[in-house]
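It is worth pausing here to work through a concrete case rather than discussing structure prediction in the abstract. The textbook approach is simple: state the sequence, then state the predicted structure, then interpret. We follow exactly that order.
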Amino acid sequence: MLPLQPRFVRRVSNEERVLVGLDGDGTPNSVTVVQRSRLNRLGDYVFAIPAPVVSVLPGPGTESQPGQRTNQILWQGFSPGQRMLAAEAQLRLEESAPYLPVKVRVEPRDGRTTVLIENQTAVEVPSYTGDVEPTSLTQVLARIRTAIDRNLFAEGLNVELRGRKTPVRVEIAAPLRLTGTVGAKRFSALLDGVERRAVSVTVPGAEPEVAFTVRTARVPDDVTGKQDPSTRLAGTIRLELTYARTRQFDQFLSSPDQTGHSSTTYVYKTAAHPVAAPPIDEGGSDSHAMSWIALGLLLAVGLPLAAVLWARS
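Step two, the predicted structure:
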């Protein structure tokens, strides 16, 4: 089978709703994604969304019919200037659940039940320190902040270093905002994934209904002009990497436009096991001289969490 040649991959806004069914102990039993992509220009479009799909149906408001291939949602057609593409995809649980942003545990004890929800987005990544040129750092910081304000990919970010860079490792995570209910008790929490990783809610009785939503929160920005250059460099790198990690969870499935606006809402809810759908039928080296160092590390590409794995499956 010949690979699909993508066309029309710019000026697309992406919105997703990830529906996660939970067993009584908090274990996911289903993952379904409703993805809505709005094309904002005239022309033909051909592209595939990598995903471990079991089944694909037209989503609400779609103006075109999605196709399906192993590990792909297919789109092809013509946009008269604006066109809404919406698909509802049931995903294979074992391949999609590990990439969800939070983990849920339900622990009954002594006539009460505690529901623990943990931010699972933290990762340790390579970074660096060095003697940075302040003007280039100021320019890069401004571009990162503009990208955050507009919810766009921060492209082409480089800072000027004088001399060697020193490798370090930093822990980053996507900040998450949670709102919902456990039984009759409402809760809300902001989990940055590093300083605060989890929230627990305790209610009387056993087997309470759990229902909550998860959205990414604004990336914390503590970089100031009063800091020394090395501290500002470390803060700027952390800001960019945290934003890149956050954008990964703003695209559970891949957006047709990796640089464009994207947002995802995760909806967790106690639910019975779904009926299984039938399978588809196939048809730069260091030196003491001044050098330019890319601020964006590999993580900052901002690809969806599992797109590469799913595409290779």
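Step three, interpretation. The first strand starts at residue 12 and ends at 22. Residues 12-273+285-312 form one domain.
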